[in-house]
Target: Chaperone protein HtpG
Amino acid sequence: LQNPETIGFQAEARQVLDLMIHSLYSNKEVFLRELISNAADAAEKLRFLALGNEGLYEGDSDLKIWIDVDKNARTLTVRDNGIGMTRQEVVDHIGTIARSGTRKFLESLTGDQAKDSQLIGQFGVGFYSAFIVADRVTLETRKAGVPAEEGVRWESDGRGEYRIATVTRPRRGTAVTLHLREGEDEFLDPVRLRQLIRKFSDHIPIPIVMKKESGAGEEVVNKASALWTRPRDEVRPEEYEEFYKHVAHDFEGPLAWLHSRVEGTSDEYTLLLYLPKRAPFDLWDREPAHGVKLYVRRVFIMEDPKLMPRYLRFVRGIIDSDSLPLNVSREILQENRALERIRAGAVKKVLGLLEDLAKNEPDKYRTFWQQFGTVLKEGIIEDPKNRDRIARLLRFASTRDESGEVSLADYVARMKEGQEKIHYLVAENAQAAKNSPHLEVFRHKDIEVLLLWEPVDEWLVAHLTEFEGKPLQSVAKGELDLGRLADDNEKKAQEVVAQAFQDTLDRIRKALAGRVADVKLSQRLTDSPACLVLDAYGLSRRMESILKASGQ
Ligand code: ADP
Ligand code: MG
Model:
């Protein structure tokens, strides 16, 4: 051992570990999926880097994952010959939980174990799940391409601290050894392990190898073929679900998925894309940790949140292209025309999946909308080419239906005889929207008004000016024009009233001079005596406050 060092876990890491052990115990076997998943990621990273540097294989390009038990020592080892880690990488990736959402995650815990285990799942479980069943974990690793003397040994009991040292390690890759807790002997049983591997990791495209029962030689336990290359009708739903948990780092299954092979004139690619059941913690971060994974002819190239437009940043899964060049850098990929076409194709497929859910599986669509609706709204602004399709997927609350499930199509279908516009109100919050005096005349005339109150809504209505030929009109802006909905008698009555109030208006104008642009008689109100209105092209109140908040 060289340069041994003892380092304390970050307080947050310690807390997460502790929680994991207690809250996840009922699902303890997930640790195996997590360790295999890391080993598979490491193999895929090596395969990609070796495309540009064959030497990294060190003469061994046969990538595998080995699972070994030692019944006497009561240890279980998951080993790979993947990319491996340097000492610094071990400290950075294993010694700390450097996830952006950690604090937020800890803050959202309730103390109720059942609920919290869901949260932990959402957070991703990872390497630390080993401590659910082990009271000591040893990790040995050596990075591909570095001398054997630069191996690393890491060990911890998962409580306060870990030890790390430099060791000689002729084998490239990583071995994680679990010293099983009292009572966890089921994980020393090869039959049980095979069963778990088939359940969790059948689809992993790297062979998972165990010693043969007879003791002589080894055998591959999983299917080890990329799941997405198999025909759709030969993949069981459970297999799709397990694959999702692997690619998405999720603990729960997906809400829905699409699996499709596209054979166009210039591109051929396969999509296996999923919608999660829940928003990840970093949904609102500038640089989310995860995204869709790009493969070229089964070789993992990169995982990049930018493979999908921002408004679909919650989509997970893989895109595997047959037509992109293998030896490309990230930078080149970002500007590759073929990749642009593939992205556009993937976006269309995802919108198709959402349309299908909205139509045929309303409960699922409701879940989707609750989790990701706010993000999807950004698409109206970000993706003008698909604006009509996205508009159809939007859901709102309205004066008629507060459930928040009114589509623009529903609204249009309910429009009154003679109604020409889609009326909406943007307010600070739901309460303010419902109680706005601007709604009085619409209530009185039984005209539905869409109620919006999310920060993105202001931008949404600025970009979505019409739907199916019907203009969207704010109830708070400009002249109240109810079109043919105002009847002749009303118009006559208004003229009479206007005459009668001429002097009053002049007096109010004088009194408020410089503080308001104008004072007008209004048909908006039926109960309130007065309200503030914006001129047709003016900034709305909410926009004004947003601009003020940002210092403009
Ligand atoms: P995640 O896989 O979601 O990143 P984990 O806790 O499972 O989170 O793993 C943390 C990090 O540790 C990985 O991202 C990777 O950098 C590193 N790591 C874990 N296991 C291995 C392994 N077998 N080989 C190489 N690196 C690994
Ligand atoms: Mg992992």
Q: What stands out?
A: The pocket of adenosine-5'-diphosphate (ligand 1) is lined by residues 34, 38-39, 42, 80, 82-85, 93-94, 124, 126-127, 174, 249 (CB under 6 Å).
